[in-house]
What does this fold into?
Amino acid sequence: MTDALLAGDLDIGLCRALTPPHGLARTTLGHQPFNIAVAADHPLAARTSVSLSDLADQHFIVWGQPGHSGYTDLLIGHCRAAGFEPRTERTPLQGTPPVTAVIGTDRLAFVTTPPGPAPGGAVRIVALDPPLYAPLQARYSPRTTSPAKDAFLTTATLRPHARGPIPSLESPRAFSGTIRGSRHLRYRHRGSVTLPDGWGPSLGVLCVS
It folds into this structure.
């Protein structure tokens, strides 16, 4: 993603808690509440909410190695602030929606999918109480000119007091809205964002977490 952004082949990279390298800028579009994903037969699946401190004895699935992933370090930091050192393991299921990683396991995963049943009832999403929030950030090159990029950053940014309206990065839909222009949409399924109808010309976006 970094090379594509610096080369101008990609307009925007969506991510969570990743420090931009030299030459790229980052803006926070908003925050979404963290929830906990568990398999439908997990003991916690019957709960409507849990506190993070209740999960001290659980194992957490993460997608990046601690110390090498800003997002994983963010999750670990939340656990430490709750008073415990989390037991984590990196999932081999890279590139799949995070909510599906717990299927067939007794592990937990931080997700931003809304509480309730998820894919086909195989997973249950349990709310965190008190809530914690995950940043949704856009990385881009400030040296490239793109009306589509500017339109995206303007329309996707949340109001300062708002939390949550930006769709989840685990959403199964890639994009909604009108996409026009000659450039191909660049997208990898680790996330999605909903664009308003008629927002402008084609935009290259890569979503990672």
